[in-house]
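Hello again, I could really use a second opinion on something today. I've been staring at a protein lately and its backbone has me curious. Can you walk me through what the tokens say about the fold? Take your time with it, there's no hurry, and the full record follows here:
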Amino acid sequence: MTQGAIPDESPRNLAEQLLLQDAIAGNGKGIQGGANNMLGDAPRLVAIYGGYPEHWYKMTSIQAFMINGASVQVHWFRNSQTQENVECKFKRQYPKIAPKNL
């Protein structure tokens, strides 16, 4: 398990910056967390940022943009009580290329 805070990832370009701003402004959804689906990172988040484990959620942006050939989403953690957003990162998925027939 990672100890300590993970710094926010900086956007690489304007499109990623706009995607991040849109997501953090409220256009995101919880993908894991809460009392019924506890995060594995919850103890670390509580130790660093406070709150209770059941208040922490992993979030993802609702939209995914194609940027430089990759589908890009934003992921971060949010405290549902304080609305604090921490440890933002970009998830970039590049399309798989089928092997060429020889």
